[in-house]
């Protein structure tokens, strides 16, 4: 029996995935969450073998959550489930430690195949985007230089959170948050917040949807 944890902010999608997976008979859904930050606690508590993780979620996006998870529990395999088929998202997902990348439009058989591949520690990519890594291989994203904490501060900043709000959420001081933000802007070569927001959206760190 393969144990799976579902992470997506759309309840109807989680319910559909649960029904699909459990109908197979060899897969058991052991938990679910609606955002990346809540998912981390749940996943580490139940230790599933495979996680199906959405990209676009409030608070902490799926790719950054996957990076944190694979650092803390590398034995847990993460499959990114996304509407994004561009090479930027695919490349970042695998850089974060994901084992698979599926489009949300994927057929049920494809989802099952990806879960089984992850169980066997094999990479799986939706056929429609199989060439994305090759297309992206020689293009370095400016966001690759950011640490996981810097990316968290960036995402919350772009989402409109104040330094005080970010500090409370991440258990940091407002001064430390400002330091992280200044460091991010320096690494990315931007001078102000509007530039930072535009660059983040362009590179898919915080999708504009």
What does this structure look like?
- The protein is α/β, with parallel strands linked by helices.
- It folds into 2 domains: 2-136, Rossmann fold (3-Layer(aba) Sandwich); 142-202, Orthogonal Bundle (Arc Repressor Mutant, subunit A), CATH 1.10.10.10.
- Helix content is 51%, strand content 14%.
- It is built from 10 helices and 6 strands, in the order βαβαβαβαβαβααααα.
- The protein has helices at residues 11-24, 36-46, 62-72, 87-95, 108-119, 132-136, 148-158, 163-170, 174-188, 193-202; strands at 2-7, 27-33, 50-54, 77-82, 100-103, 124-125.
- It has a 6-stranded parallel sheet with strand order 2-1-3-4-5-6, sandwiched between helices.
- The protein starts with a strand and ends in a 7-residue tail after the last helix.
- The mean pLDDT is 86.
A few lines on this structure:
The protein is 51% helix and 14% strand. The chain has 209 residues and is of the alpha/beta class. It folds into two domains: 2-136, Rossmann fold (3-Layer(aba) Sandwich); 142-202, Orthogonal Bundle (Arc Repressor Mutant, subunit A).
